[in-house]
Amino acid sequence: MATLRQVVSRVRSLDKMLNSDNTITDRVIATELKSKATFYIRRETDKRKLWNTSTIFTNIPCVEMTEVPTADCCDYVSDQYVARSKHKLPKISDGIYGLLIHGVFSVDNSRRLKEITLSRYINLLKLGLPTNDIYYWIYDRYLYISSPKVEVASIWAYFEEDVSTDLLYPDCPCTSQNKPNPCTNPLDLEFKCPGYLEDVVTKDCLQVLLQTYYRVPVDHTSDNKDDQVNKT
Fold first, then answer.
1. Which pLDDT belongs to residue 25?
2. Residue whose C-alpha is closest to residue 99's, from 162, 163, 42, 33
3. Distance between CA atoms of residues 124 and 145, nearest Å
4. Which parts of the chain sit beneath pLDDT 50?
5. What is the pTM of this model?
6. How far, in whole angstroms, is CA 17 from its chain's centroid?
7. For a Cys staple, 107 with which of 9, 86, 152, 203, CB 3.0–4.6 Å?
8. CA 200 to CA 44: how far, in whole Å?
9. What is the pLDDT of residue 178?
């Protein structure tokens, strides 16, 4: 998969005016690229595509959890406890089917946890029905798990924000000790976008930049991006 820097260079190469303009930084182009990629990825996942690909999802292999009362995430008064991630997660993108989460697993990936909404989980508590299932939900950007005994979990999701090195590689036994350089430039990270969408994303990004900085009108007469995507 191409790095973000490589795709930024591709955008610059598409237009001589943009390529020679140093006032438009690589970070500006990168921000627009990620915004366009998010737009198309949302659209594709709304069509039930991309869910079985690993190209867009990022794995946080060791989400450290801590035990908290149920009241931590709702107004329901109960003596029940749940597990909550110690740190907030980066923003997870969403679509018409909810958050773009590929799955939450036990730290060894041997067990997949069941997704549930907070309101449904509260209803289960009110009904008092016994269950052996372990559920998860996201509230206020924290990961919650119904079993307070869970100390560490693994999550695969499409994050709109960069995942910090500290979150990807915390100081816990379950992660590799071969941590990347924490000073790695974000431009040198993978560009989370499937290959068949890269062309339309880069061209859309270029059009926005030209229109924003040079007032170049967008040509809608040759806008066949939907056809290009749907044919793949």
1. 94
2. 42
3. 14
4. 221-222, 232
5. 0.84
6. 33
7. 152
8. 13
9. 53
Query: Rounded to whole angstroms, what are the CA distances from 47 to 17, 97, 232?
Result: 36, 10, 13
What letter would DSSP give residue 108? Answer: T
Domain ranges of the chain: 4-52+192-230, 58-168
**What 3-state DSSP class applies to 162?**
coil
Question: Can you tell me the distance from the alpha carbon of 87 to that of 65, in angstroms, rounded to the nearest whole number?
Answer: 8
Report how far residue 19's alpha carbon sits from residue 8's, in angstroms, rounded to the nearest whole number. Answer: 10
Q: Are 201 and 225 in contact (CB under 8 A)?
A: no
CA quadruple 89, 91, 93, 96: dihedral positive or negative?
Answer: positive
Strands (E), the chain: 58-69, 81-85, 94-95, 98-99, 101-106, 114-115, 135-139, 142-145, 152-157
Q: What does residue 149 show for φ and ψ, rounded to 5 degrees?
A: -80, -15
pLDDT tens for 177-218 read 555 566 678 898 899 999 999 999 999 999 999 999 887 665
Cβ 101 vs Cβ 115: under 8 Å: yes
CA separation (Å) from 97 to 20, 37, 46, 218, 219?
42, 18, 7, 32, 33
